[in-house]
Amino acid sequence: MTWQADADLSTLTTFGVPARAQWLCSIDQEDQLPVALQQADRKDLPVTVLGGGSNVLLLADVPGLVLHMQLMGIRHQPDPDDSNAVLVTAGAGENWHQLVDYCLHKGWHGLENLALIPGSVGASPVQNIGAYGVELADVLVSVRYFDTQSVQVRTLDRDDCQFGYRDSIFKQSLKQQAIILSVTLRLSREPRTVVTYPALLQHPDVSADMSPQQLFDVVCDIRRSKLPAPAVLGNAGSFFRNPVVSPDAYATLQARWPDIPAFATSTADVKVPAAWLIDRAGWKGVRRGAVGVHDKQALVLVNHGGGTGQQVLALAREIVASVEQTFGVRLQPEVCLVPAPESGL
Ligand code: EPU
Fold it and tell me: How many other C-beta atoms lie within 10 A of the C-beta of residue 258?
């Protein structure tokens, strides 16, 4: 385990913006973690944890120690409670899409809708990743993490993770306290497909009796057509969360914009696509120097090359102000801003 001084972080996040870490240390064995944390504590250095870097915008150089989590390994065991299920445990450093692909080929189903989501397994419970009608919480059994306060490894069962839309306990009370080590999922040995999401139903290859492989292919197809590959165009997926508004607020919006789309939530509140709001406010494809709004999905901010975190932040702030002025709805970031700006977005 070596500490690298003044390390380049520009290739460690999918936005590809320039930033350096005072110190960078890769963690590929669990027992390295308490040692690195203790060393940082002795030197009085703040610690920042980085996974796949696909949901992070670096706004400046990062002081202290950056831990690059690279705990690998995928294990499985029969589910004692369900002979049709398998329990799959993956290390935090595994690539999410590779895990989805691996499970599909093993005949373990349930992750197909979550294909091609960039990032690492360790980041997946933090924001409860979700796409095309499935979210991680639907298949998650438990999360093992290192608790920096008690200096112990702990396990949280799904029901204790406080999962919500792009939300979990790891973003709330355990923020800065939990470093995720591994995730255990319950997958089905029987082919099972969830085809409820509007964009899936509109696809010509989708049918009620399609195979998991076909579903996986359709999801990859839709994502590739709308979302830029980070290796080609720097981005962090959806930059904003879809705002959730009250039924009254939605009725007011709908009276003015009758074609405004909406998704139901578990309460009476309504989720409105931020992409639609940003698109309608005229931002799709807009460029501000080296950064801009993707021309196929208005929710994605992109780095055309040579852009900085501050430039992306300035664009995001312009969009927030414009959407608020047009629709009276204030967008919140989905991407983690590091370091968090004092004045918010
Ligand atoms: N729309 C527009 N303009 C656009 C793009 C979309 O008007 O430029 C409209 C569409 O017509 C549709 C609605 O917005 O009515 C929703 O679009 P889409 O199905 O593409 O989904 P989204 O709400 O924009 C969310 C997730 C994505 C996920 C997709 C599919 C969030 C913040 N984003 O996007 O997640 O892939 O649904 O489930 O919830 C991510 O988190 O990084 C991500 C890509």
Answer: 7
